[in-house]
């Protein structure tokens, strides 16, 4: 599971609990994008293995949320996010199917790449803190807390 702000990507077994608002390009052959029809080589990009749906969660308390449902060879994934004051859902649903698919795919991949970057940065932060000896453990009221102290805090503790 990945969390970016209030956006969350998670792997699921099925897409139950979602009302599908749009299913852009349901036919696999429509998900092949040709860059230029006049080229002799016809360079194409295929997304045939990636099925996308735009949906709203039906669970109690999920008002104001929108979901992009992605199904590909790796499984089924859901990206949920708050629409907040921006009418993202309405704007996305007014687009033609090809643009809906392209924008929903781009949003999903961008959230996934941001999450991967955040995980890598956090891992690097903890690895550096471990090497520098700045990981501290504290017990209070029967609870254990692990945190990273700043270099200044380590200097004060060491002196």
Structure commentary:
- This protein is of the alpha+beta class and 159 residues long.
- It has helices at residues 88-94, 97-132, 151-158; strands at residues 2-4, 7-12, 18-22, 32-34, 44-46, 51-57, 65-72, 75-82, 135-140, 143-148.
- Strands 1-2-8-7-6-3 form a six-stranded antiparallel β-sheet, with helices on one face. Strands 4-5 form a two-stranded antiparallel ribbon.
- The two termini are 41 Å apart.
- The model has no long low-confidence stretch (mean pLDDT 83).
Give the helix level as a range of percent: 25-40%
The CA-CA distance between the termini, in Å, is 41 Å
Rg estimate, integer Å: 22 Å
The count of β-strands is 10
Class per helix and strand makeup: alpha+beta
Q: Largest sheet, if any?
A: 6 strands, antiparallel
In DSSP terms, counting alpha (H) and pi (I) runs of 4 or more, how many helices? 3
Strand percent estimate: 25-35%
Shape: elongated
Strand order, biggest sheet? Answer: 1-2-8-7-6-3
Compressed to H and E, one letter per element, the order equals EEEEEEEEHHEEH
List the uncertain runs.
none
How confident overall, as mean pLDDT? 83
What key phrases describe this protein's structure?
159 residues; alpha+beta; six-stranded antiparallel β-sheet; elongated
Short description, anyone?
Helix content is 32%, strand content 35%. By secondary structure, the chain is of the alpha+beta class. The strands form three sheets. The chain has a six-stranded antiparallel β-sheet with strand order 1-2-8-7-6-3, covered by helices on one side.
């Amino acid at each position: 599971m990945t969390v970016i702000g209030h956006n969350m990507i998670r792997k699921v077994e099925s897409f139950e609990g979602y009302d599908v608002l749009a299913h852009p390009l349901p036919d696999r052959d429509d998900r092949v994008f040709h860059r230029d029809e006049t080229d002799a080589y016809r360079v194409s990009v295929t997304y045939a293995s990636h099925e996308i749906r735009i949906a709203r969660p039906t669970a109690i308390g999920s008002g104001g949320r929108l979901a992009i449902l992605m199904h590909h060879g790796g499984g089924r994934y859901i990206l949920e996010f708050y629409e907040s004051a921006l009418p993202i859902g309405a704007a996305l649903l007014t687009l033609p199917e090809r643009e809906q698919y392209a924008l929903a795919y781009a949003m999903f991949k961008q959230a996934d790449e941001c999450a991967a970057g955040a995980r890598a940065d956090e891992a690097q932060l903890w690895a550096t803190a471990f090497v520098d000896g700045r990981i501290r453990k504290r017990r209070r009221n029967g609870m254990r807390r692990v945190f990273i102290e700043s270099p200044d805090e380590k200097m004060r503790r060491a002196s």
